[in-house]
Amino acid sequence: MSEMKISCMNCAVTACQKADKEKYPPFCPTKNMDEKLHNAVLEKYNDEENRKIACVSASVEGDYYCQLTRAEEILVFAKRMGYKKIGIANCVGLINEARIFAKMAEKNGFDVVMVSCKIDAVEKSVIGVEDAQKLNKGCGHESMCNPVMQAEFLNSHNTELNVIVGLCVGHDSLFIKHSNAIITNLVTKDRVLAHNPAAALYNSTSYYKRLLEGNVPD
Q: Structure pTM?
């Protein structure tokens, strides 16, 4: 018999929401929690910033559950955290959406710094992207997405909360890796599903059945 995999993947009861210990399945991470890890993680919430972020997030949820849009929740969270300056890291393809959110933030009293992914206009070949891998093959200069520069640009402006608007998969990871400020996500890019990636999950037994059949392309 293979070793049991401790994971939430097969859970159908989510008993952890109420600490209903009698319903924890055998593979439940909470049921099998290492006490040292439990204590070490709780210790991290003694950090002033960690505790404040966790408590403010809970207060926004508790006060406005199913009442506010994601955009509104971000602004309420930022207000309650006492932030004054918000950074926006956007895909150039969603620059209009990012501008709208920037205006919303400014109207609510925030100083906003916005930076698009093509900042610095560095040619893709500089980092080793071949012409065959470009969107417009054989058409000369094609600027790379530059999430590291986006992060450093916002770092230089001392933003307190950075909001991602549609950065590509992987590019968002690099931005998160290099940002000094904490980050939240407003728009998750999905060019096929109008930036609603959850639709692929909701249709996983029909239109996107191939995802459950191991047929994702290389």
A: 0.94
Q: Give the pair of three-digit tokens for residue 132.
A: 């065959």
Query: Alpha-carbon torsion 166, 171, 174, 179, what sign?
Result: negative
Domains of the chain, by residue range, sit at 28-67, 68-187
Under DSSP, is residue 105 helix (H, G, I), strand (E, B) or coil? helix
CATH class of segment(s) 68-187: alpha beta
CA–CA gap between residue 87 and residue 183 (Å, rounded): 9
Residues 78 and 162 sit within 8 Å (Cβ to Cβ): no
Predicted confidence pLDDT, tens digits, the chain (218 residues): 357 899 999 999 999 999 999 999 999 999 999 999 999 999 999 999 999 999 999 999 999 999 999 999 999 999 999 999 999 999 999 999 999 999 999 999 999 999 999 999 999 999 999 999 998 999 889 999 999 999 999 999 999 999 999 999 999 999 999 999 999 999 999 999 999 999 999 999 888 888 888 888 88
Estimate to the nearest angstrom the gap between the alpha carbon of 4 and the chain centroid: 30
Burial of 36 (0-12, 13-18, 19+ CB in 10 A): exposed
Residue 155 to residue 89: CA distance in whole angstroms: 11
Burial tier of 46 (Cβ tally within 10 Å: 0-12, 13-18, 19+): exposed
Which stretches of the chain are DSSP H helices?
35-44, 48-64, 70-81, 95-107, 147-156, 171-178, 198-202
C-alpha span between 109 and 188 (Å, rounded):
25
